């Protein structure tokens, strides 16, 4: 290990330059807070020169809310309509609009805004101010823009009751609803913070929400992350940008929000019922990611890129009725045909935004099947400049994934994205990566020798887990929108579970006040989680991983259970450390009765045999014409056994059936099964009664049928050597 010894010598010389990679981010924070006056000495006191600028459609209540805020803060209140425009024009706004027409009105209004200046005030904009770019750029320079986001139907009702006959842009050829929808793009362009305003929300309540939102915007220090194994009270906090970059905590734990996830009120959730998937994602993620880490405008850009044309269904994550009280949440419409696309079309762009520019990054991921192709595809879609400094390696069990999954991973390789087979199982791959991340000598050597830092893209990385919360919340809102339930009615969720990330995201949605009653954990024959949830005893002793038809959940050591135990133990890092040290050293741990009782308030569990999995696929196809993939079939079997039919149950359909063609052909009793993955897909396609195979999967296999990949022995030093070789080839 000569390179490690050499690194230790170099570290003595370059200690200052080897501070954590977020040093740049810390510096930028300090600059920001030096430049911006401290506006908040208490929850309702304002100092300094910054304005609070209220923006939203006509009828949003900007004027009334502005007056309430001004009274609370004891500062000037300026209404652009009354105090600026009408004063400058010597006529009412409606008269001016009638006099000059729509286009000229916007220009006149913009000019007035350009000549306006104020400081330390509460400013209520007009509904059309945001449509004038130069005017908004001018006013935004000395203010925090707060978007009062009121549902369109509520605004239309208010305008009708106010007898407002016309707004800017409204005419015989354009409906009021169309104008209001059109304007949203301008509101979304300019705001710093958003306040969701339901139809029945009193102005005083909205004012309080505005103050809270501005206070949050001004103070990023309170939104920090800690390790699940942290026992320190000081110097252990990280910001969102840090945890995205670092992935795994230095003590081996996983990062979690120190104060938990934010809660949305029932009225706030209900305001999203009519929203698109991307709009729901924007609102939820804005609440979970501080704007100091990712501003709202950048987050919108990332979400638009992630959930754009690369998804084949416009609803992104549609919910469809299966049978009885069972509904399927289809999570396979992304480019690689699995639920992993929801995080991995977004996470690479988040990662590229958060990391410092001064260092190259190699992202490592261990996969039991679906993550591999999703991470390779996601990072392979980065801009060329980002590809030069960010590369990804996906380690998978060489003989532990389906032939189509392997071919897909190989086909998704790009100039900065590589698939590496390991002659072992997923648990070895995941453990090996964790050892590398926590080996400071090895990671430090790579930084000094090659200017390259390691990062993680498994669900151990918080940025992988967070986007998954969105589709669980969205599924519930879709059932409300479809009239299946009223908001507040409970639902159960059943999820095929391996590494516990997907089901943990559902539990986080529940924490955020989506009315989820129980999460049903569905396992295959590798049913360690079923036993754990039922007994509180996590026992790996004597267990051997069994290859199944549902390889993505062929996992024994489920990483994200650690986050859940930290949650229900109320942040007891010492207990989590004790449990996981015992698991690592002795192969088991036992929960205390009180903690196990808490777990069972959220979770129930069951498992499914291989025979029952295939039988479920055949039965559902025979009765409905729908084809479940093998993982969804596992969840369907367990849901049938454990649901009590007193509420709807949402089954997560985590992959497209065509990724598992041999098992599907066997389940449907089609005897001719070819060995070549592309031939298997063609065989499925040839049966006209079947739903079509996934477009992206077929195209990937067609284009890359003859590509190869690297294969490594199940040896940590061999994996390290492979990593070093690829770093040399890509970055040097």
Automatic annotation (TrEMBL):
Annotated InterPro entries: P-loop_NTPase, Ser/Thr_deHydtase_PyrdxlP-BS, Shikimate/glucono_kinase, Shikimate_kinase/TSH1, Thr_synth_N, Thr_synth_N_sf, Thr_synthase-like, TrpB-like_PALP_sf
Alphabetized CDD domains for the sequence: SK, Thr-synth_2
Keyword Amino-acid biosynthesis: yes
Listed Pfam families: SKI, Thr_synth_N
GO molecular function: pyridoxal phosphate binding
Residues bearing PTM N6-(pyridoxal phosphate)lysine: 340
Keywords, ordered alphabetically: Amino-acid biosynthesis, Pyridoxal phosphate
PANTHER family per record: THREONINE SYNTHASE-LIKE 1 (PTHR43515:SF1)
Family, similarity comment: Belongs to the threonine synthase family.
Protein name as annotated: THNS1 protein
Species in which this protein is naturally found: Odontophorus gujanensis
Gene: Thnsl1
């Amino acid at each position: 290990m000569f390179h490690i010894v050499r690194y230790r010598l170099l570290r003595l010389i370059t200690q200052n330059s080897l501070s954590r990679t977020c040093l740049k981010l810390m510096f930028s924070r300090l600059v920001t807070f030096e430049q911006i006056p401290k506006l908040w000495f208490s929850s309702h006191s304002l100092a300094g020169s910054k304005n609070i600028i209220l923006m939203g459609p006509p009828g949003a209540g900007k004027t009334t809310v502005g007056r309430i805020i001004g009274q609370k803060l004891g500062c000037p209140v300026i209404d652009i309509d009354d105090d600026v425009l009408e004063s400058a024009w010597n006529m009412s706004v409606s008269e001016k609009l009638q006099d000059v027409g729509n286009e000229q009105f916007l220009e006149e209004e913009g000019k007035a805004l350009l000549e306006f200046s104020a400081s330390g005030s509460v400013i209520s904009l007009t509904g059309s101010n945001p449509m004038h770019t130069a005017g908004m750029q001018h006013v935004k320079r000395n203010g925090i823009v707060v978007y009062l986001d009121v549902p369109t139907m509520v605004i239309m009702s208010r305008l009708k009751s106010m007898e407002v006959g016309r707004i800017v842009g409204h005419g015989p050829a354009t409906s009021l609803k169309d104008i209001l929808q059109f304007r949203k793009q301008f509101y979304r362009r300019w705001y710093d913070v958003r306040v969701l305003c339901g139809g029945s929300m009193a102005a005083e309540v909205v004012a309080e929400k505005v103050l809270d939102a501005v206070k949050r915007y001004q103070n990023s220090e309170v939104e920090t992350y800690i390790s699940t194994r942290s026992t320190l009270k000081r110097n252990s906090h990280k910001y969102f940008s840090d945890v995205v970059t670092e992935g795994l905590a230095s003590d081996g734990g996983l990062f979690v929000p120190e104060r938990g996830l934010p809660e949305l009120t029932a009225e706030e959730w209900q305001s999203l019922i009519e929203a698109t998937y991307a709009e729901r994602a924007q609102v939820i993620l804005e609440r979970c990611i501080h704007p100091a880490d990712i501003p709202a405008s950048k987050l919108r850009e990332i979400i638009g890129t992630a959930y754009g044309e690369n998804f084949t269904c416009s609803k992104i994550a549609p919910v469809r009725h299966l049978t009885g009280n069972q509904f399927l949440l289809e999570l396979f419409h992304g480019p690689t045909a699995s639920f992993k696309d929801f995080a991995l079309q977004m996470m690479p762009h988040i990662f590229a935004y958060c990391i410092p520019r001064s260092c190259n990054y190699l992202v490592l991921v261990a996969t039991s099947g679906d993550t591999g192709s999703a991470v390779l595809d996601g990072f392979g879609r980065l801009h060329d400049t980002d590809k030069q400094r960010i590369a990804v390696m996906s380690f998978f069990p060489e003989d532990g994934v389906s032939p189509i999954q392997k071919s897909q991973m190989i086909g998704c390789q790009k100039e900065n994205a590589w698939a590496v087979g390991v002659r072992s199982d997923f648990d070895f791959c995941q453990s090996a990566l964790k050892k590398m991340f926590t080996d400071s000598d090895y990671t430090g050597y790579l930084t000094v020798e090659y200017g390259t830092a390691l990062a993680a893209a498994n669900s151990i990385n918080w940025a992988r887990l967070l986007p998954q919360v969105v589709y669980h919340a969205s599924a519930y809102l879709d059932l409300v929108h479809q009239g299946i339930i009223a908001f507040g009615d409970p639902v159960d969720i059943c999820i095929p579970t391996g590494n516990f990330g997907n089901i943990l995201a559902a539990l986080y949605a529940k924490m955020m006040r989506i009315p989820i009653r129980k999460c049903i954990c569905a396992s295959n024959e590798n049913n360690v989680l079923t036993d754990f949830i039922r007994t509180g005893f996590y026992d790996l002793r004597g267990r051997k991983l069994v290859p199944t038809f549902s390889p993505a959940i062929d996992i024994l050591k489920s990483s994200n259970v650690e986050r859940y135990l930290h949650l229900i133990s109320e942040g007891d890092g010492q207990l989590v450390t004790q449990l996981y040290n015992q698991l690592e050293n002795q192969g088991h741990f036992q929960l205390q009765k009180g903690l196990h009782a808490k777990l069972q308030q959220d979770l129930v569990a069951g498992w499914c045999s291989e025979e029952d999995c295939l039988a479920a696929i055949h039965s559902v196809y025979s009765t409905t014409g729908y084809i479940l993939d093998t993982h969804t079939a596992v969840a369907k079997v367990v849901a049938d056994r454990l649901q009590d039919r007193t509420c709807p149950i949402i089954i997560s359909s985590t992959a497209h059936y065509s990724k598992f063609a041999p098992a599907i052909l066997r389940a449907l009793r089609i005897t001719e099964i070819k060995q070549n993955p592309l031939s298997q897909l063609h065989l499925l396609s040839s049966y006209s009664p079947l739903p079509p195979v996934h477009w992206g999967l077929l195209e990937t296999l067609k284009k890359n049928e003859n590509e190869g990949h690297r294969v490594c022995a199940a040896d940590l030093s061999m994996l390290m050597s492979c990593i070093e070789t690829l770093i040399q080839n890509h970055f040097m």
